[in-house]
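Continuing the batch. This is chain 6 of the set; chains 1 through 5 are on the previous pages. Same settings as before, nothing changed between runs. Recording input and output for traceability.
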Amino acid sequence: MDTALFRRSPSGKLVRASGGYWAFVPSPLPPKLEWDDAMVSIMSKADMALGTLSGLGENLPNPHLLIYPFIRREAILSSRIEGTQSSLSDLLLFEATRIEKPGDVREVQNYVRAMEYGLKRLDELPLSLRFIRELHEILMEGVRGGHATPGEFRQSQNWIGSPGATLNEATFVPAPVPAMMECLDQLEKFVHAEPKLPPLVEAALVHYQFEAIHPFLDGNGRIGRLLVTLLLCQRNVLAKPLLYLSAFFEQHRQEYYELLFRVSSTGAWREWIVFFLKAVAEQSGDAVSRSRRLQELQRHYAQLAREEHLPPTAGRLVELILMKPVLSTKAAQEYLKVTYPGAQKAINALVEAGILTEITGRKRDRAYAAKEVLQILDGETV
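Output for chain 6:
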């Protein structure tokens, strides 16, 4: 680690670890922030965009129509930042049939499980160190990195650098274990304290701080991004968990990493917060756009079902495919509460109508995809 970059940082201090190397210990939150017109402007845009998204979530007759696929899209993109290769179709196919294509689909599915667990857990437990460890245990269960003490904060030094880099060649060395635990305690106190900053700014600070502390041997980036949505839900800024920032972070991956690094090295809080707020504004607008297109497609499918005189079960299945655009006959059977042949009949009607397409080529354990729904979820916004 180039210690010259960090010696005068207003965001933390260098400490000499017992092994003789230098590490960076971030100062407790919050930092001193100086607001200017540009920051106020982007803050206003982010608040307005998030308010529109939150209002949409409150007014939906069935918000799970969007929550279910949006969480899975976030899981794909957050995991992609860390180098996984699975697609949204791969994940949905795995969930529908347990067919596992080459890639990292189990890691992505663990992210989904961790997010869904966290959203439910908020009803019982506020965000805390215990909460974070529980998320990590789910995230790392049975996947690569699963050897790295799932659910436990690290007891040894980690570092960030190019593949194969040693500790002495690292780009960034987070706090040694004793200082790390002190930093985590301070972070927990900050999250539990009476909020004195706008929630979006608070979320930006917490995300940086968690990444700087880097308390796990693996999975820090994904946990840090999970915390953003969970914190905003805990603060009641989001009525429903529909905002996810990983698409923006993945699209601007190099800038994302550079800004986190610059907060540590030069105290570039303003630049990081502006970047974070831009992510909120853009991804809120993106989620609203996709939501409206999905609702429009649902209305189109419902009209098509009436015009084509499809069986009532096929019409009812339309809502499920908006939520689960890759599904099996068994999933349709459970949703419709009909016999297996009855569920297959409903699926066949949607296949004939061009709404569903069989994608496995198998005679048994088949899966069907609503490709127009997948395009809205996974394609570029318009």
